[in-house]
Amino acid sequence: MSPFSVLFCAAFSVCWLCCVTNARLTLDFYKDTCPQFSQIIRDTVTSKQIASPTTGPATLRLFLHDCLLPNGCDASILLSSTPFSKAERDADINLSLPGDGFDLVVRAKTALELACPNTVSCADILSAATRDLLTMLGGPFYPVFLGRRDGRSSLSSSVAGHLPTPSMPIPQIAQIFTQRGFSVEEFVALSGAHTVGFSHCSEFVPNLSNSSSSYNPRFAQGLQKACADYRKNPTLSVFNDIMTPNKFDNAYFQNLPKGLGLLKSDHGLYSDPLTRPFVESFAKDQNKFFQVFAHAMQKLSLLNVQTGRKGEIRRRCDQIN
Q: Where is this site: Transition state stabilizer (predicted)?
């Protein structure tokens, strides 16, 4: 069976599950109410990505940080804090989320409100834009089911323990994903999102001098040089994948056995016997990585979605109506 046939079969099985569990979500949800939806998303994604190449990884991370929380894919990560409530986006782990992802959603929402007022949810915009950006970067295509409603609540206190951090041991990170219904293989595939984007020096420099470090010595020296002034300039950052930083591929997994991972959690994927077999598998077979990643992303996009009378269609993505 060809890789494309395998991907089609996997997508079909997921689609069947989606249709059963989320009957109100459809691939053509806006066919009649906003036929320009897909084109507006594509146009917005294309112009933003060309103007700012960090948009793809920024939006992917924003999507992951929204959907992994217990309230699921409800665009609650986009809500701003109020004088009475501190929102998810202001939780410590989310303070480093790049602004390009937020800006992309605002641009798409503005265009969609002009074309189809009060029709398209911010949650659908984020899900569709993430998929389109991934394909622009060379990643796999997967169908995005639409019809989500936006959440009305966003609390920073709900974030702790539900999102992985670079310093977490692999079993703890794996548990975050398995508790949300993902297999270990899917967790490793989603970690492959680090094949694009960057990380701030403060997230990995403290690990470079560790005597038991898994870093390639020359790579560690290069990182120390690149991050020499990170205490004075906390915005200093380095590409997660130094080989093909702007292309979504399996180079990230090929880097790990060579000691070219950037974060402690990256090295952990290869050193931990629970995850190492999947790292090796994805390093050898990019089609396999794409297949599992696409399946996991679609699965993630459907976690705890609100439909029908639940939630709302926000007029602005940063505040409830």
A: 61
